Structures are given as C-alpha cells and as structure tokens.
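Item description
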Amino acid sequence: MYMIICRGQNAGQIHDINIENSSFERVEDFEYLGTTLTNQYSIHEEIKSRLNSGNVCFRSVQNPLSSSLLSKNLKIKIYRNIILPVVLYWCENWSLMLREERRLTVFENRVLRRIFWPEMDEVTREWKRLDNEELNELYCSPNIFRVIKSRKMRWLGYVARIEERRGLYNVLVAKPEVKIPLVSSRL
C-alpha cells in the first residue's frame, strides 16, 4: 500500500504499482499506530477519531466523575491521566485549525463541567451552570492547548538532540535540492 500526499484535490490517477512480484495499492488514508493518516494534509479526521475515543473513555469513567464521594482533585487526576492521553495521542504532529481548536475546547469544557458540576447561586438559590471562564478558574492545571504546546516543544527538543546520522534529523535540517513548482489555482 502507498499514499501520495498533496495539497490539491487531484493527485493524479489512482493505479497500483508493481515491483518485481509485489503489487502496491494506492490509498487515500490509512491507520498507522492508532493515527489516521490522509493524503490531504488534513488533521480533521484524526481529531474526530481522537475525540470519539476520548468520548468512549469519558463515558467509561462518567460515574466516578459524577460521584460526590470523590474529591475534585481526584476527578481532575482521572481526567488528566486517563481521558486526556487518549485524546492527545501523538498530538505533537498536529497543525490545528480554529475548527479543531474549538472542538477540543468543547470536549474539555464538557468533561470539566461533569467534574465541577453546577453551583448554587447564594442569592437566587438556583443552580447555575458554570461558564467557560469559571471553569478555567476552577481548573488550575494547564488547559488542553498548553498541554499540546508543551508536548510539541518536548518533541522538538528530542528531535534537535538526536544524532546526525538518523533519518529524522535529516528531515529536520534538509534543504531541498530540487525546486518544486507551485501549482496554479487557476484551471
């Protein structure tokens, strides 16, 4: 199996490649080590998949997160150590667009609302749903974007320290020898 990655919609004709006695089928996306890779530089499907996995994980621990027997600190630890790693698996290579940032924020706020629950207003004696700013004040840990940035910086530090003979280092410092012409958007 092989995949051609391009920015445009048309990456040429789809055909199999035959080398000696082996045939390689061209695909538009595939899953590798739990990550969905696509041929359009799109992270949208990967974020969607990670959020679906995070929702499954969230539903599996929803009862403890709703329990009044557990402290809020323990609930936050459950979120940070069980749910968040599922959602942020291999986030070091994500290039987030505003739409994906919004989806991640909505997910995090939904989990935090389950942890912190509504509060009773002292004046009106009614239950008040916490808004996003109040959630951020109650949640003293770094939000999901700070965690992503931290992981990206840690990954960059790792890549910068690896030996020169390794392939990843060559990708980091390589300078293309051949100029690739820009594709005109006019047809």
Summary: The chain has seven helices and six strands.
